[in-house]
Design a protein that fits this description.
By secondary structure, the chain is α+β, with helices and mostly antiparallel strands. It is 64% helix and 14% strand. A hairpin with a 5-residue loop joins strand 4 (225-230) and strand 5 (236-243). Helix 1 (2-75) packs antiparallel against helix 2 (82-106) and helix 2 (82-106) packs antiparallel against helix 4 (116-131).
Length: 247
């Protein structure tokens, strides 16, 4: 009888420990999901602000200049010269380029029609036209990689954000995007020779300000990885790694 009681106590203790372990694991998952949700909200808010900023600094100003010039022409008795009309045309054409660029950022239709590598090449060309940049694109993959839709979107947006950061913040004269395969993983390297930053100092303080925190989380959510190499005055290199899907 005593032996059975001891067995029941031991079993009850084991169940209690299992319940506590499951509870802790459940709490960890809950906290992780909450943290992820907060970061996703933050990413969405930053993207909205970026779109609003691009609209204000680019499209709105160009359209405003066009309207102002047209009003001046209407109020004047002088027939507008070719130079004035060309300037209006330039403002409007730039507005179209800016709007197209924002459409590609928000919902890139090219991802539905082409493989990731081709879509990335088109984006590099688009961003070079918009910013008069000199980004190089090198694709070392022989056959198209058949990523699922989620992976394609995450990778495309990650590289898009990294390239935009190079254009706006790195003060780089040369930058390149290289797609290659290593150890059955697809590697996307985004590198510049700009101002760089001290990663060990940035990481614990301004990590989220660089957008790298959310990028790393998004890569982990697709079972990928992100590596960062940078030093002040020596540029930066960001490497995205994701498992190659079976073709």
């Amino acid at each position: 009888m005593q032996q059975q009681v001891e067995k029941h106590k031991a079993a009850a203790l084991i169940l209690t420990e299992l319940n506590e372990a499951l509870s802790k694991e459940g709490q960890k998952k809950t906290n992780r999901l909450k943290n992820l949700n907060e970061k996703l909200v933050d990413v969405e808010e930053r993207e909205r602000k970026a779109v609003a900023s691009d609209l204000h600094d680019g499209v709105v100003q160009n359209l405003g200049m066009s309207i102002s010039t047209i009003k001046t022409i209407k109020e004047s008795t002088i027939v507008p010269d070719t130079q004035t009309l060309s300037k209006i045309q330039e403002y409007l054409e730039q507005s179209v380029i800016d709007i197209r660029s924002m459409i590609y950022k928000l919902a890139p239709p090219i991802l539905d029609d082409f493989d990731f590598e081709t879509a990335l090449g088109f984006f590099v060309e688009e961003i070079n036209i918009k910013y008069q940049g000199s980004l190089s694109y090198i694709n070392n993959i022989d056959k198209p990689v058949l990523f699922d839709k989620t992976t394609k979107i995450v990778l495309y947006r990650a590289v898009s954000e990294l390239m935009t950061n190079i254009i706006k913040h790195s003060q780089s004269q040369n930058a390149e995007v290289i797609v290659s395969e290593t150890n059955n993983r697809i590697q996307i390297s985004v590198e510049d020779d700009g101002v760089g930053f001290c990663w060990e100092k940035v990481r614990p303080t301004q990590f989220s300000c660089f957008g790298l925190n959310s990028l790393m989380d998004r890569m982990q959510n697709i079972d990928g990885d992100m590596k960062i190499f940078s030093e002040p005055g020596k540029g930066a290199k960001i490497v995205l790694l994701v498992r190659k899907p079976p073709n």
